[in-house]
Sequence to fold (346 residues):
Amino acid sequence: MSFRTIEWRDNKVVMIDQTRLPGEEVYNEYDDFRSVAEAIKGMVIRGAPAIGVAAAMGVALGARDIIADTHESFFRQLDNVCDVLARTRPTAVNLFWAIQRMKRTAEAHKDKDLNSIRQILKAEAISIEQEDLQICRAIGRNGAALIREGATVLTHCNAGGLATAGYGTALGVIRAAHEAGKKIQVFADETRPWLQGARLTAWELLKEGIPVTLIADNMAGFFMKRGEIDCVVVGADRIAANGDTANKIGTYSVAVLARENRVPFYVAAPVSTLDLSLKNGDEIPIEERHAHEVTHLQGYPVAPEGIKVRNPAFDVTPAKYIAGIITEKGVVRGDFEKGLRALVGQ
Ligand code: MRU
Fold:
């Protein structure tokens, strides 16, 4: 990959600033956990697995900076660091998964001295990042088998290298099919209001020479009806036990259109995106973001001042529309509840 989404470098966290793409490729350095939390909130880094990695690195920075005479004081302050990071974005479960993993790691080593615990947390955050890259490659391998030679694949939002430690989930499947020489092409929904498709998916696919065509969100049905789309692959922010999947707003509409036009609709996600504690998608918390994202385009007003606005950032696609959930451990189809539980041995 020709860019790094996030890395731990010289005791700082370095992230590509996704608010400035595609115009400028700028890398920001973060030296304390509060600024990492602000970066997650402000979408400098976004995408479920990537914000998990960022939160883990935030915990490691926070642990490094805690001043404590006792373990009790250290662990109390570490809880506070975790709480601040957990309050950044509510929908993607990978954020909470990563924070929990960091907490459990600290707990498991609570008998060691504080400096050792700090070092162990730093190593754990780096492992989460490196594992994510391997997991995305495995998702890619498992999903590429579903993409036929010469296919046109529609994707929504950005579930690419920018949304993970690298390689991507939905775009991991696309990358792997491309690397296998399948001569595929991608249709990228622009993904209003934040334009992850236009600004990020188009940018990373172009950069890698994977053929990509940008369309406005309301054009997907047009191309499906004309038989120009062979399948849809999207990422996920949280998958409930029955397979209902939260992903970027607009995903649900794409899934319904896909069903109507007999186009298979796949979700690609790591096992860390599963939330089997939730029975179905109604229980997934949905983030609502600032009205400004809807009323303005790159700072330019496109709606009358004072207009009432709703801006949910995610929607839930019912499991019945999903042809398969592609994970690093295999593809689950049919009875999702049974298949997803079997994947994680629950
Ligand atoms: O608001 P965002 O940009 O964080 O939303 C991202 C998505 O909805 C992605 O599709 C999802 O996180 C999967 S990323 C591999």
In short: The chain is about 40% helix and 15% strand. The mean pLDDT is 98. The two ends are 35 Å apart (CA to CA).
